[in-house]
Amino acid sequence: MKYCEADYYLAFHFCQGIGPHRFQLILKLFGTAHKAWQATETTWRETHVPDTVIEAFLNHRQQYDFEATALDLAKLQITYIPQSDDTFPQLLKQIPSCPIGLFVKGTLLPIDGKAIAVVGTRKVTPYGREVTERFVSALVSYGFTIVSGLARGVDGVAHRVALDHGGRTIAVLGSGVDQVYPPEHRELAGTIIQNGALISEYPPGTQPTPGNFPARNRIVSGISLGVLVTEGASKSGSKITALTAVEQNREVFAVPGPITNPMSLGPAELIQMGAKLVMSAADVVAELPVDASSTPANGVVKKRVEFADKNQETIWLCLVNGTQHIDD
Description:
This protein is of the alpha/beta class. The protein contains 15 helices and 9 strands. It has a 9-stranded mixed sheet with strand order 1-2-6-5-4-3-7-8-9, sandwiched between helices. The longest helix has 16 residues, at 126-141. It is globular.
């Protein structure tokens, strides 16, 4: 059976010892994933790839089953999008450690290129909840897709508010997309799948281990135009995400809070480091290279829109940000 380039990307994605950086080296050495997969052992030995990695690859190549992998993904209703595909998020292609590909439950749309990450503490306070709700509802009315990490606290609030106001939202997981964590967010994850996507660079079955989340954070920021931190401690994952965003040349926004609250220290320190202090969604939009013509009217935010079928929803999503040419 003849396989396409995407199939070979997927095959390499499952190979132990080959991550984003090493995969880019392999592409430079061989030209395509297909040629790398088909190359002889002698050719591989002539490269600068470590012998341990070559051994792992040769064993993996011998055991890997293209048809079985495709069938397993189909049963789980998971789509694989390699970085070479046109539907792979364009912003994410720009980061140095771009994932080999993404495992997706749900749908990524072109309008998701207008995305903003909203992150913060798991121990969200009433103040943090209020400002997260205020910013997310307004950002949705401006046509932004909301990106976050499906964690407890601010992440969960951001996803829920986006959905409640008829917006799209993307959850980036530190596990396989079939391993929702925390477990109490399984129902939320199901709703996200219907109105956005769960995405991960980790293959199905991957458990949420602590080491996965720093790598996950680079995707949260990399897929977004900017990162908004609404609340967080001095040492927190949200602060790490913001610093990663700086390295990726993304905008960083922080909401000020009471200096007596430890959960306000993260945004305060980011502001001291040069993050944009924001007090409204308009402050965020003003710094981003996007069309902000669809501004909220008198602070009224539209609730979720119901559709008779998928075609209506697709058309509405194309028009929600403003007038489009008939060809588009």
